[in-house]
Amino acid sequence: MWTSQQTLGYLCVIGQYVDRYWKLHAHMFIFVYVPPPHNANSLCEALLDCISKWNIQSKLFSITADNCSMNDSAITTLKRNLGRRHLIPMQGQHLHIRCGAHILNLMVQDGMQDLHDTISKVRESVKYVKGSPKRLHSFKDCIRTVGLIGTKKLTYDVPTRWNSTYIMLKDALFYKDAFQHLASVDPNYINLPSEDEWSYATTLCQFFKLFYNVTNIFSATRNVTANVVFEEIQKVRNHLHTHSVAGNDYIRSLAIKMQGKFDKYWKNDYNVLFAIAFVLDPKSKLGYLKYVLEKLNERDAMVQYEKVERSLHELYAEYKIVYATYDEENENANNTNVELEEERPSIFSRDAFFTYYMSSVSPQVPRTDLEAYLTDPIERPRPNENFCILNWWKENESKYRVLSKMARDILAIPISTVASESSFSTAGRIINDYRCSTTPETVEALVCTQSWIRDEDNSCEMSSRIAIMVDIEEDCNHGGHRDTGCKKYGIIANSCCYEPRVDFLEGLEQSTIVLPVSFQAYNWWSR
After folding, report:
1. Are residues 129 and 175 in contact, defined by beta-carbon separation less than 8 angstroms?
2. pLDDT tens digits for 218-246?
């Protein structure tokens, strides 16, 4: 939920899915005003309305949302609503996905609460230098004097964004010698950190570097699949465990404090779908999962492994019920040709012997494609090879017919809600002090249209997009009904905003969709 300057609450829903060509897509579904009261029931009602409007009741797979009690209650209500109609897998056991970027932010912010005094001198130094053009010019002279070469710019940090504090410290450390020279030539500069403070800032940057890198991975909105999450979570766990027994008292206390927040969200309560996605990476499979868990030296490592393995087979069994029958029917339909009677072979021929041999051998139970996948050798990409997991599944789709459909849905799970939050930033630029009377319908039209036009997955060039919009506008201006131009391009005109038809999303019929808040939908029950 986002509250505008008009004090109106808006909900953004973005769908993410992998299409039949194994391309990852993300499309905005709605950016809608939600009337008060803003509670779990009203949020659930808005989500159900979106699901019904886009006709994806049977395609919902997961919902990614921030960690707040209202979201938890709304998703629980939605789970009950869809679960009793058997529209979600495993009765919605793994429907709720917690935003990974938000958990990392809570974790680091919790640890940095006691560090403001330590880094205050670095912050004040940056503020002093950027406080006036004259000081900034003088600081540039100091940079040249000490022989530093670089294009880094000093940046302020934002209290609500810990990663901005990391960037501020890292950039300030790069110009450490310039700050020291500035203190010798400018008597008004009195906030120079001591050597111990510079040393501590260096240690903090080294400690937070991993969290910064993981946040960037989780916050990416393009070409990031769910198989990366499990390994990154384990990296964070190992990092915290290592530094919780370190010799540095400050870092040790920091790591112990952050460990408590990690245990709350990720120790045993992380969504098992991320571990399954890790197994569906042909470079990992169950063997690497077991190896990673054993290396962590956790007491319950085997319990976690068995839980993932059990959930993997249970989920596959549900997919097999849906898709195995469908594939068999298609295969039988393709094999209806009339066969002519062939000449019977001689009893001494090798063909007759092979028939005799096969009849005498006990029949082997055919393996499922899940068993075949798990027993096949793991992939080992060549050095510097840019391995793409979606391309691998595209090439092996015919080999693992049922499992590939499951992989398509799971790999498309959104890791974070960053995509929807960026839409709120867009809306914040639309609704400002000078445009505070804009109606909710107009806001939705502007935000959604901008998202669709900027969609990088759209195959047409910008000139073609502009031509489409001009064509629609001309149809409206020349007395034609606006539906004439809209339907020509697969767009439905509704009230004062345009909404894309479901079939406008290429490959949606056999793919996975996500909605950050985020939803993920798929065609798994459709026959």
Report:
1. no
2. 887 667 889 999 999 989 999 998 998 87
